[in-house]
Amino acid sequence: MHTENIVTAGKPLSEATKALIMVHGRGGSAEDILSLAAHLSVKDFALLAPQATNNTWYPQSFLAPPAQNEPWLSAAIDQLKHITDHLERRGIAQENTYFLGFSQGACLTLEFLARNAARYGGAVAFTGGLIGDTIDKSNYNGNFGGTPIFIGSSNPDFHVPVERVQASTAILREMGATVTEKIYDNMGHTISGDEIKLANSLIFS
């Protein structure tokens, strides 16, 4: 199970009015994902990056039956819930709480948000989709109330099929999110400069 290990940067929570939760991908680290902040318009944000035990949030593909990713998947979702609850206790309102994830971290972020939909500040998913061999909408609750979400991905992407990205976008929109989806031809499994630009203009402006 994941041991809670949250690396922080940016403004101290005692001074910040906004917070960004940054979720690294498989094999990555909290420090890796935090390094992206230098390219984002988040200088006034408190930054919080949880570190997955053994650098992996769950062991199998996000397209595997969820039971095959347990108990890690539930522990990872619980960790994001603990962080958002902590932020609320420290005076950061939900509408000032933001999310960003890459790859496995993007999938985890979107799954957490769909299970806990509310009016957040915004979310960025660099190559990700909702989790499961099939998407189980019975797990999802709440309404996003117009929360802006940007999802960028590549066609093709070896890990994240475009069809799952599109299906995820449709569900998030049904739940009240304002989703901007952009699929790049042959971008590869990476984060592009254009995605950073869109994240800044759509989510962090």
Automatic annotation (TrEMBL):
Pfam families referenced in this protein's UniProt entry, alphabetically: Abhydrolase_2
PANTHER family membership: LYSOPHOSPHOLIPASE-LIKE PROTEIN 1 (PTHR10655:SF17), LYSOPHOSPHOLIPASE-RELATED (PTHR10655)
Source taxonomy: Bacteria, Pseudomonadati, Bacteroidota, Chitinophagia, Chitinophagales
Domain Phospholipase/carboxylesterase/thioesterase: start-end pairs: 12-200
Record's keyword annotation contains Hydrolase: yes
Keyword field: Hydrolase
GO molecular function: hydrolase activity
Family statement drawn from the similarity comment of this UniProt entry: Belongs to the AB hydrolase superfamily. AB hydrolase 2 family.
Protein name according to UniProt: Dienelactone hydrolase family protein
InterPro entries, sorted: AB_hydrolase_fold, LYPA1-2/EST-like, PLipase/COase/thioEstase
Keyword Mitochondrion carried by entry: no
Superkingdom assignment: Bacteria
